[in-house]
Design a protein that fits this description.
This protein is of the alpha+beta class and about 280 residues long. The protein contains 6 helices and 10 strands. It is elongated. This is DNA-(apurinic or apyrimidinic site) lyase.
Length: about 280
Amino acid sequence: MPEGDTVYQAARRLRAALVDRELTVTDFRVPALATVDLTGRSVLEVVPRGKHLLTRIEGGVTLHTHLRMDGTWHVQDTGAHPLPRPWHAIRLVLANAAHTVVGMRMPVVELLRGADESTVVGHLGPDLLGPDWDAPEAARRLAARPRRPIGEALLDQRNLAGIGNVYRVELCFLRGVAPWTPVAEAGDPLAWTVLAQRLLAANRDRVGHVTTGDTRPGRRHWVYGRAGRPCARCGTGIRRADLGDPPRVTFWCPRCQPSPDGGTPGDRRPGGSSYRA
């Protein structure tokens, strides 16, 4: 799943391609918007909010998109290349005289009145890469449900906006805490939020998530995607399980991240832990 830094980068690319330029093509390939025509209007802003993108268009219209698991944005020079394939995966095309942007496999594509943006992003907690980032407020939200597993609390965008599965797994390793540890037993919530922001900020200007400081292939993560391989810190085999509700693939080092009860997670799925993106 694209995480906050990926969406931040997408917003920067779209901003450079679209802002202050008049749209010459608006091709929405979703049924609800199939007849919409916004040509002749200018794009005013492209704003990332957690994992959401808000593209504000002249006339009080906001295009709201979310990449979820598989969505991607492509930016190319207008007329220089055919649209990317497979064509059936295209969900929208926006173009001006200079640039064309294409949204692929995008599950959320909707138009809103600008005044209604809060209906889709108003639930979000402080944005890790936003100008209004507030670490103490994010920590307060994390601590509000002390028995919730820390790994699930980090994914809940109502607490802090921008963390996906890669960062929540790596954060747990860096803090030396098993992902199923209750928030109340996971240490200072403020330390979690400060570290989370540092990780995303360190990656917002490069492709790919690097949490170890080593950009070489196979060495970018401490535990994510490394099941069965030795921990880079202690040599213990990295473990993997599907945990949470909904379940997410989780990686951890059993030595560097000891269980709070001395056991293993097994197939536990703590209840009451749904979260919003």
